[in-house]
Amino acid sequence: MTFFPSIENADQPEILHLQNALLIKALAYLKGHSPFYQDHFRTHRIEISRIRDIHDLVHIPVTAKKDLQERNEDFLCVPKTKIIDYITTSGTLGDPVTFAMTNGDLDRLAYNEAISFTCAQGTSNDIYQLMTTIDRRFMAGLAYFLGIRRLGASIVRVGNGIPELQWDTIQRIKPNAFITVPSFILKIIEYAESHGIDYRSSSVEKAVCIGEPLRKIDLSLNTLGRKIQEKWPLKLFSTYASTEMGTSFTECQEGRGGHHHPELIIVEFLDDNDKPVHEGELGEVTITTLGVEGMPLLRFQTGDICLHYTEPCPCGRNTMRLGPVVGRKNQMIKYKGTTLFPPALYDILDNIDFISNYIVEVNTNQIGTDEIMIHIGSEFRIEDKEKDIKDHFRAKLRVAPQIIFHATEEITRMQFPGTSRKSIKFIDNREK
Q1: Separation between Cα atoms, residue 77 and residue 31, nearest integer Å
Q2: pTM above 0.90, yes or no
Q3: What's the first-to-final CA gap in the chain, in angstroms?
Q4: Quick one: 88 and 215 in the same domain?
């Protein structure tokens, strides 16, 4: 089978026609199999026969993470005997949610990743070094494994961390591609430099990057992306995905946003009143999954704030593209009259060489407004650098947060609490 689906270079009317047909099929499936959506349609008096195309979706109230947390099992559309794999979300905004996947869902996941890797110039000749976990109820590692297998490429399941093992794998198996959190590439480079490894001459040519943005809102590389490329000129491909959508948006070689796969998902961008925004306006990514059997979702609010682009891409694809995540809706900070999202803080901190790691903490102060505290780790005594750090913030954001210095090991412990599968950079202690 081809891994460049013809629908991706079809014209917009053909893409819309396909999505409308798949939407009608998805609505019928939800009405027939989903206890949650049966109640949802009945409570809000939704007659699905009146929803004929994706523009009619505005007549259906959105679904939120809270619904999944409170009525998790009511989203299940198949008998438990049909479930092959159980997964949980990472719990970014609260308790993790369980997702159940059928054989068909795993096939869909493999297809999604195969076409996504193709988008990132992947071929059956590639050898991918998987530097994320494939266990601990995590979808991403499993998805990458299934997708690479479908693509016909090779994979080395190394997992996260342990730079020594990563370099042993590179030297032993000679992969040409990483799948990794981009900040870990800097750790790989640091290890190579301290051990005399000529990393620029290694077999690795590209990296499919997950979990952290590489680009700013104008699609230019952010500080993290620039730091990596200045050290090691790899081809970097950003991806955006979540457990709930079971679909990824991956950059092509043009680096102009993650490409939409219209046969797998419908995407809306909504304002604070759940109304569609125009292209060029920030909106919350709201998704309707297509072809999911186990736990399909309708108008699910992801909490991620993005721009989107509809002009054709020079790569030949005509599908919509998703810009980098500007921030999480629930993580928006209002500080001293300025509205901020955590990635704006990260980009400044990533650009200060003597900062090894950090945590951004937000609290509610005595007068009920947001207060930002940045915990900084460094191998050097940098208390005398506090003014310089604050000046960086004032120059970029007009405001400066409070700063506390720690040993790098202490910040590392804060970043990986308990059973966390992902590094935590943001702690929200605000009064709800």
Answers
A1: 10
A2: no
A3: 50
A4: yes
